[in-house]
Amino acid sequence: MHSVTIRDVAALAGVSTATASRVLSGHPATSPDARRKVVDAATELGFRPNAQARSLRMTRTDTIGVLVSDVRNPFFAEIAHTVAQSAKDAGMATLLCDANESIDQQDRSLDLLLSQRVDGMIVTPQGDGSGSLRQILTLGLPVVFVDRTIDGVDVPSVTSDNRTGIEDAVRHLVDLGHRRIGYVAGPQETSTGRERLAAFREAVERHSLDDAPELVYQGDFQAASGAAGGRALLDLAEPPTAVLAADSLMTFGLLMVCQERAVRIGTDLSVIGYDDIDAFRLVDPPLTVIAHDPGRMGTLAVEMIRALLAGQPVTSAVLTTSLVERGSTGPTRRNS
Amino acid sequence: MHSVTIRDVAALAGVSTATASRVLSGHPATSPDARRKVVDAATELGFRPNAQARSLRMTRTDTIGVLVSDVRNPFFAEIAHTVAQSAKDAGMATLLCDANESIDQQDRSLDLLLSQRVDGMIVTPQGDGSGSLRQILTLGLPVVFVDRTIDGVDVPSVTSDNRTGIEDAVRHLVDLGHRRIGYVAGPQETSTGRERLAAFREAVERHSLDDAPELVYQGDFQAASGAAGGRALLDLAEPPTAVLAADSLMTFGLLMVCQERAVRIGTDLSVIGYDDIDAFRLVDPPLTVIAHDPGRMGTLAVEMIRALLAGQPVTSAVLTTSLVERGSTGPTRRNS
DNA sequence: ACTGTCCGTGTAATCGATTCCATGGAATCG
DNA sequence: CGATTCCATGGAATCGATTACACGGACAGT
């Protein structure tokens, strides 16, 4: 499979490789005659420039690396999709990797992206920034964090306001009369896991709600841990009357358990999910959720990377979060 | 940001670049002394080989391109995820692109992957294979189709048995007494769209069911068209008593409309969805679906690409499909 | 002791596209 | 009409890693 090089094009067009290159990259100093011959030759041979050779010379790949924790999570899939679309619109390609929610695989993917010499990276990070991430940052490669951040690491980021989302959710439950609220937390190796849990604890304190340690189940953002958390909370001697989960996959797990046990959501137990996934509108009853905007996160992240690449200063953005009230939350049964 | 090259490593280690390269790529003819010095120098400098330069020389990138129609579709997200994982296990990287269900973007993505000089591609194709796809195939680049194929194009593929899935679904509905079944079809530019529709039509004929043209709504595999199809079918003078949708996103749309109109699924209307998404277990009632296995498709596709790269012959695989009966299908109301 | 292997190493060519520099011809100006 | 500018063009260097080839030294066999 010998591929067509610019030499072949130049030879067929009867010009030098320099001229061929100039024509093909739109350099102004080319004659109409040469332009025509080179373009004809290129299309006839089906010439496709070798991106390796080009970026080796240019020290630029016009490619940004995207690392999400798990594409199977609809929230991250949406981010990945919009990032890919916006990048394409800006004339850049994207290399998408999936860390499978593992710090080890995160490091391997970062190494891969680094040796592919991406011009910048958009990352949903985890861990303490000690591994390959540190190296990348000392290298000065433009990086933007999305959804998550890392403490003490000064990287521009686009996140959502975890605090008010949780606060609104708890207030909503309190207004409905709930005093005993369970929480399925995300992993504490992630900033979102930590911030959401902290916000939950503060809200519990502010409203003087039941504050038993067993009301918080420590999950890992995967569906299975949401199910485990659901079981643990429902099996308590004094189970909560409402439950919050810290991401969409754990919310799924939680709902599965409720279905398994025929717990009537909205009456037996109020449930608030995280992320406004389409499917949450279809469950019965439709789920009250803390909504934020993955699409906007993705487009903003690309804008920020482009600004960084252009040498412009960027400031981190924090998007707002809103509570979407549907049927899965209702007044406490035990209360009445 | 001047990156560390193998020259820097060689200089620090006090050897030539050739020796440094040999050590780093595990060539046997190296002395223990040189090995130690080079490895030390490389780690000290944080050397990371430039993949561009390497693959330019080696004419191999150890990277496979993956093109799915839309990562937001959970079915394709799962394929992308398992492909990435299996490829990683095999020591290969993956470049993931998203065609956004558009033939135009499919061609652009293929061009991108081609200039990245991927060693092979795994594609969920659409269209007639006339654009960039033809060029890639005449180039002899190893390609494997997943889920979908293209008529008259001889490429190994891993698909699922669309026919029996639909047949089982229709038989199940017939057994429940349904005689008037609606169908929300996928785009006829895709093989899955065509095969499933053909299978549906044949099943309708075999069972001598109502065969009005308006019972088939032509959708495009996106959620919005599922909703439009749902409305069209429900608005018929004589609406169907059961509906099938040809993929998961359209099934979502269909369910949304049912919810909007308070159609009681399983009693007012039986619904069968396509793809066994977790969320379909949670809707009320749990959805009867035609299930197939995206994870297995992904791993098989990687195995096939590896075989092709090794010059071994491969034969296409067709995976089985099964009907998972849940609560969304029930006996006809009008029948009784 | 002499010749033939074998092994570790260095020099330099190579992959394909871009780009600096030099060149020659045409166009412009005094 | 001669000098100067401008522009299209080609030759050759370059990016960083790999590897064919050559070379020198060690070692074994006769």
Q: Can you offer a commentary on this structure?
A:
2 copies of one chain form a homodimer. Chain A has 336 residues and is an alpha/beta fold. The model of chain A has no long low-confidence stretch (mean pLDDT 93). The first copy, chain A, has 13 helices and 12 strands. Chains A and B meet through helix 4, helix 5, strand 2, helix 6 and helix 11 of A and helix 4, helix 5, strand 2, helix 6 and helix 11 of B. Chain A binds a DNA duplex (30 and 30 nucleotides) through helix 2 and helix 4.
Summarize the structure.
In chain A, α1 (about 5-15) packs across α2. Chain A contains 13 helices and twelve strands.
What's the quaternary structure here?
homodimer
Mean pLDDT of chain A: 93
How many DSSP-defined strands of chain A? Answer: 12
Q: In this structure, how is the largest beta sheet of chain A organized?
A: 6 strands, parallel
Taken from the alpha-carbon principal axes, the silhouette of chain A is elongated
N- and C-termini, Cα separation of chain A: 76 Å
Task: Tell me the strand percentage band of chain A.
Answer: 15-25%
- Ranges of chain A with pLDDT <50 over ≥5 residues? none
Q: Largest protein interface?
A: A-B, 55 and 55 residues
Number of H- or I-type helical stretches of chain A: 13
Rg of Cα set of chain A: 26 Å
Structural class of chain A: alpha/beta
Order of helices and strands of chain A: HHHHEHEHEHEEHEHEHEHEHEHEE
Strand order in the sheet with the most strands of chain A:
2-1-3-4-5-11
